[in-house]
Design goal:
By secondary structure, the protein is an alpha+beta fold. The protein is built from four helices and five strands. Strands 1-2-3 form a three-stranded mixed β-sheet, with no helix packed on it. It has a two-stranded antiparallel ribbon with strand order 4-5. The longest helix is centred in the middle third of the chain and has 15 residues. The two termini are 22 Å apart.
Length: 103
């Protein structure tokens, strides 16, 4: 990912976009990011739209927080719940607490 200070941008936006390739350029002002010129090669419009949607980003943040807290479902629990919904036995789904993996 390249960085471009806004004051030093000497070409037209179209020139930067034409030579972007698969990279992205973060545009900064006083060394703080203010915008980005992002390559869309291989990116579906739906994926781009979701990645910029505040409601979707909130869901992702909430899910990541649950994982950090160890609030996860085991595959066994998910299968059990699916079996219950299709007429199997009635055992409620409860999250198991597991230590979150550190990155």
């Amino acid at each position: 990912m390249k960085t471009l200070e806004l004051k030093k941008a000497s070409k037209a936006l179209a020139d930067y976009a034409t030579h972007l390739g698969a990279e992205s350029i973060v545009i900064t002002s006083n060394k703080k990011p203010v915008a980005a010129l992002v390559s869309l090669q291989g990116v579906e419009r739906e994926s781009l739209s979701l990645s910029l949607n505040p409601a979707f980003l909130k869901i992702i943040r909430r899910a990541r927080a649950e994982v950090r807290r160890g609030e996860v479902y085991s595959l066994k629990q998910v299968k059990q719940e699916m079996h219950t919904e299709t007429g199997g036995h009635d055992k409620p789904l409860h999250r198991t607490r597991r230590k979150a993996a550190r990155r």
